Amino acid sequence: MRKITLAEFPIKPRTLFRAILLGMAGLAVFLVIFSIYVVSEGLPSLEELENPKPELATRVLSAEGEVIDEFYLKRRTYMRFDSIPKPFLNGLIATEDREFYHHWGIHAFRIVKAAVKNVLRGRLSQGASTITQQLARNLYVNIGQERTLTRKIREAVTAIQIERTYTKNEILELYINTVYFGRGAHGLQVASELYFNKSPQELNVPECAFLVGILQRPGLHENLRNYQASLNRRNVVLSAMAEEDYISDGECETFKTVPIVLTQPEEVTIERSIAPHFVEMIRQQLTRDDDKALAAIRRFDLFRDGLVIYTTLNARMQQYANQAVEEHFKQFQRDFSRSWRWEGKESLLNEVLDKAIKNRPDYIAAKPEGRKQIITRLRKNAAFVDSVKVEATRIQVGFASIEASTGEIRSMVGSSIFGKLSRYTLNRVTQIRRQPGSSFKPFVYAAALDAGLTPYSSVESGALSYKLPTGKSWDVAGSKDGGPMSLATALKFSINTVAARLITDFVTPTAVIRLAKRCGIKSDLMAVPSLALGSGEVSPMEMITAFTVFPNEGMSVEPYAIERIEDRFGNVLYDHAKQGLTISDAMNPRVAKQMTGMMRNVVNSGTAGRVRNWFPYEAAGKTGTTNDFADAWFVGYTPQLVAGVWTGFDDQRIKFTGWYGQGGSAAAPIWARFMQKVYKDPLLQYDAKRRFKGVENIGAGSMSKDSESADAEGTVPLENTVPASATPKDSTKKELPPESKLKDQEEE
Questions:
Q1: Distance from C-alpha of 558 to C-alpha of 549, rounded to nearest angstrom
Q2: pLDDT digits over 360-417, tens only?
Q3: Can you tell me the distance from the alpha carbon of 253 to that of 239, in angstroms, rounded to the nearest whole number?
Q4: Who contacts 423 (Cβ-Cβ below 8 Å, separation ≥6)?
Q5: Which of 25, 144, 532, 636 has the smallest C-beta neighbourhood within 10 Å, fewest atoms?
Q6: Which among 269, 240, 268 has a CA at the least distance from the CA of 255?
Q7: Where are the extended beta strands (E) located within 219-378?
Q8: What is residue 208's predicted lDDT score, i.e. its pLDDT?
Q9: Alpha helices, DSSP H only, in 215-314?
């Protein structure tokens, strides 16, 4: 073969050299353009690198420090490096990145090894990511999760920058707080609680190994769908720990024999909340513009910034409140459902069905012609109609308890439905206004006592006809024969005509309103005589707040729910202790004590006598029932706690059908069951022997379960009724008609 000389070569050396240089320059320009327009597009900025902001769940804690709920988009809670268990750190490094403390963000040998395998397989399947690279894509979503060369370059560049910005321990801390473990858990703190119901510090070595192993494929291992695969994966981590001398070979073999036992996953994490309405009330409070004390909190995102909210709620007391409601309604709802009839109420049923249909998403989204078809179809659907009937006749409840001396809200039940479905429903403690009926009478009586009357003062109990300034007559039915009755007896049996005469003959509606406002009632009340029978509309929380004046000897305490708020680093953003309690002098101490003595009789042997079936200790309170048994109330207190109950229906056209709808039967048992559980719990340390301070024994009134207020129809004194056993000089001994209808509420 003839050799070609240099002179015969078609391309001159200088030209070839220039071509190579131009090619290299073009390649460089291409790489620069590629980096600028493709790779750098997903890289975090310097500010983002120096101040990463992983989305963290805001935790809501009970007074005992128990997590009762969370606000989050990604369920993640931050923990410091020194709180991370050593076995987890060792397992993570042994399994995920053995050279972690020696590389600078990427591992060259692992990259080459992975590249060879990917070439042989003809696709990107083998990863070579270090812990730092994994952190890069966990922290900065723009890097992406897809398996492409672009993503790997972005990931590597970011990892190098992270290594230049943070120490190794800081990188581990960030990684462990952001990595996904399955079950909706981001970070070790949440994962430890969800999988083992433990804090991370309580995890043992096999449990740490399981959580490290799950990082590879959370979806496969989170519910042990393939137990053997999960066991094998955990044991791989244990073997890696032994290879790195974090545990001995003997320990490794022993740990491998330990079975994996996980707590059952919850279908929806929000169902864990024992106090959904309380938590939602806090969320709304933190987002309101009118609370200046919490203004600094509004610059944070509750769902991303990982705040810690310490509340006043006691988790044990909340559980007892939930149980008290469930226990009472278990039979009470059945009794009502058996007595309620839709026959003769076709118009009401049609309106209820129309409302239910028009609130459905498919109806709202449909066009006019489609809506008619939906209405026709659903009205013929027996299952749908029955479900609407059940929901319409569901008895609802509003219950809350607060610490008498401080106003700390200890428990709250805003619905008879519990769990995730109730969190964003109506809170019937704070968001409804209903007539309180006779439970408002204590403020009328207190105004009368303040005007000079005593518990033993006698007032006529017969029928009343009072002429209003408008010329109309306000009529209140009473005893046929009438007769004088002491205030103590009248309150005990909730006699309407006595309360009516107090507000017309001894005090004025305006004086009663002024007193009620000082005690904590904030709703607007009309200055009319029917106010004596509870014609104004108030919320249950207002009534509970107002009743704090009685055990506090005339001092009213504003309730509160938030003790302290911290950011993710533990810095205090809000501290209620610095704000101080909101206390006001609302009532003469003498009057408050006299009212307590009178309301103690209401509980011992009056309209709230059923309380003694469950709670034998010192207590006082007042029942309330509105027209035709629409609303039932009981607000009561011990020397330490004030609590109140409202029961009724969201649709006020649906009402209880008989005597069982009185406050003493429909509401008081919930209060009594709750107090019984609270005072029997030694961990709560409420003193069952404590008595009301300086309160005289006004009239007879046993705290025995076997008193005249026994638990049976006809023996429990009904409101506005004087039983035959009442003292002759204090009553007519005759039954009075049910509470008269509240009407003619014109201004005086």
A1: 10
A2: 888 888 888 889 999 999 999 999 999 999 999 999 999 999 999 999 999 999 999 8
A3: 9
A4: 270, 273, 276, 277, 279, 280
A5: 25
A6: 240
A7: 308-311
A8: 95
A9: 218-221, 227-243, 249-256, 276-287
- Please report where in the chains the tokens 């028009």 appear, as a residue: 358
Residue type, 187: G
Residue 205 per-residue DSSP state: H
**Residue 40 pLDDT exceeds 60:** no
Q: Report angle CA 233, 235, 241 to the nearest 5 degrees.
A: 115
CA neighbor of 555 nearest in space, from 444, 443, 404: 404
Cα gap 373→355, rounded to integer Å? 16
How far is 491 from 163, CA to CA, in rounded Å?
A: 76
Give the predicted TM-score (pTM) of the model: 0.75
What are 531's two structure tokens?
Answer: 């106010």
pLDDT-based confidence at residue 598 (cuts at 50, 70, 90): very high
Question: pLDDT per residue over 601-648, tens digit each?
Answer: 999 999 999 999 999 999 999 999 999 999 999 999 999 999 999 999
133 pLDDT tier (thresholds 50, 70, 90): confident
**For residue 633, what are the β-bridge partners?**
624, 646
**Dist. CA 409–CA 22, nearest whole Å:** 77
| Residue (of 174, 166, 168) closest to 139 by Cα position | 174
The pLDDT of residue 291 is: 77
Residue 135 has a pLDDT of 82
Pick the closest to residue 519 from 542, 487, 491, 551 (CA basis).
542
Q: Which two tokens stand for residue 275?
A: 């106090």
Do the strands 58-61 and 308-311 form a parallel or antiparallel pair, or are they unpaired? parallel
Mean pLDDT of 311-321: 97
Quickly list H helices, 55-187.
Answer: 86-96, 108-121, 131-139, 149-165, 168-178
Q: Report the interhelical angle of 168-178 vs 131-139 (nearest 10°).
A: 50
d(CA 669, CA 610): 7
Q: Is 632 exposed, middle or buried (0-12, 13-18, 19+ CB in 10 A)?
A: buried
Q: What is the helix (H) or strand (E) element at residue 369, kind and residue range?
A: helix 368-379
* Tokens read off for 746: 């014109």
The candidate with the shortest Cα–Cα distance to 141, out of 187, 84, 74, 59, is 74
In this predicted structure, what is the pLDDT of residue 212? 94
Q: Which residue has the higher pLDDT, 713 or 482?
A: 482
* 3-state percent breakdown (helix, strand, coil) of the chain, nearest 5: 50, 10, 40
> How far is the C-alpha of 241 from the C-alpha of 365, rounded, in Å?
58
SS (H, E, C) 705-739: CCCCCCCCCCCCCCCCCCCCCCCHHHCCCCCCCCC
Give the pair of three-digit tokens for residue 344: 């003769």
